[in-house]
Amino acid sequence: MRRTGRALVTLLTILSFGWLTPFQTMGQGGGGNQTEVQVQASVSESTVEVGDRVALKVEVSGKDFNNISRPSLPELPGFRLVSNTPSTSRSYRFVNGQSSVSYSYTYYMVAEEPGNHVIPPISLAVDGDNRQTGPLSMTVHKRTGGSGISGDGSDSGSNDENIFLEMEVNSRNPVPGEQILASVALYFRDDIQVTSYQPVPGWKAEGFWKERLETRRPETEAVIRDGVRYKKAELVEYALFPTKSGNLSLSSYKVALAIRTRTSGRDPFSSFFGSRQKRIELKTEPINIEVKSLPPLEDARYIGAVGSFEVNRSINTTEAEVGQTVELTTRINGTGNIPLISKPDYEIPASFETYAPQQSSNIDNDGKAIKGEKTFTDILIPRKTGTFTIPAEKVAYYNTRTQDYKMKYLPAIDITVTRSAETIAASRTGDLPIQPVSGLVRWDTPSQTILIYQWWFWAALGLPLLMLLLGYWQRSYREKLLNDRNFARSEQAWDKAKQRLGEVKRLSRDKKTKEVYSKLHTLLNAYIGDKLGLPEAGVSDDTYIRELTSAGSDEQLIKKVRQILEKCATIRYAPNPDDRHLQRDVERTEEIIKQLKKEL
Questions:
Q1: Angstrom distance (rounded) from CA 370 to CA 365
Q2: Do 312 and 299 meet the contact criterion of CB atoms below 8 Å apart?
Q3: Domain count, the chain
Q4: Statement to judge: residues 252 and 374 lie in one domain
Q5: Do 192 and 269 belong to one domain?
């Protein structure tokens, strides 16, 4: 017993020294004082499994240097970099009268391919001198059931998989605009405890308009797959709407997890350590969706709606005066692809001046389906008197339950236009109160006035021409607003942004962090899309950045846009988001919008 105890203590001492010594290499570059500055590269673990996250740290230390450039990372064979932006830190030391400083850059990468890999030397400049670290050797193993952790992203459901991610959809053969419910589910065995999870930003659903559904905190349930018992938790749900027909693909959805696994009871150290903690990244397999074409439609106007809806049309008055504003409102409410519904086109009498329609929507995503209301308001101004008729219309939407079109008849609307009453000043009759002129009279000879030398002559001559040009410009501007959809979106982008900013500020005062960052993400994307004429749905953040670059926007401004979009995309999915920088991010977004207004 005495020998066993001493051996156990010795082994524990060796292990503790092994944990305190990181796996690292040191390299030096040419030029400068090589003994004063040290450049090191290290990794948190040299042996990992597929899906594990590894910290790659580059550290510069010494006592005589001023400027350091950001490390230039080479290709990372077998690994994927999580973010190009490292976390940085610095520290100072004062030992035996000598001071030194240390700067570190930490990157995070995910192991993707099993095998023995070598991370090439990493370069950076210290006071203008190029330095390099040494290479790093890494070993990546496949995940196996014996390890207690599995999950390279596959969803085969075999008995040796202990944890994996799967995307489940309720339909693989929809029509354009039909909602698909996509759920990201996590399956794991009883010996695994999930302590936290975070969706990896940047999931692309090309060809789909997506809306994240508001779901409660994930709850686990016991399920049996291929004879194996698992715990299942639905992490996130999306409503997806295909925007075109054909074969579309849903790319892999990635989730970063922190898990804890119980060690085997036969492990002699289980009483000391109990469980093993690890950070891994799982992904789903891509899913192919075959989108069927809609059947042909005759004798009705298709409004792009797919689902179950009610369509109504109303007018604020049927008796108007010349020049009075008349509002023709179309309300569409129900369940389905509300954000993708387009306004029905009506035949408006020629005697009415029309303006770009206003639209608003109220969407409820709390549940398994998108529901709500979308409203279109046509602004009409009559220019002639008489009785006019807005003809009846028959509009159609596609009902997914009956798999056919449903027609909605909108009755004709009659409008009577009259001229406003004019006030005529009544003339007064009677004797004029003429008084005799008394006192001295002075006679003046009027001088001759030449009109062309009078300012009011030219003003009177040029005013009609100026008004004519102004009226022509205003009419051209209104016609362009009416006929050019992209121009109208660009002109109205700032007003929409101010309205949305007001809503965001109200939410920020209530500390609704997730809603604020979700609104900021939508606000920024919508403003860029409106100014650059991009589609209103189905556009990724990377596309907005590329379009800003193509438009010649300032690089610093593009960097700010990318940072705030990435932060919004990350925090809006966080289970317990931090609200310490909430107000500052709202103000930053407002400043970005103002800068974009000047550049775009």
A1: 5
A2: no
A3: 4
A4: no
A5: yes
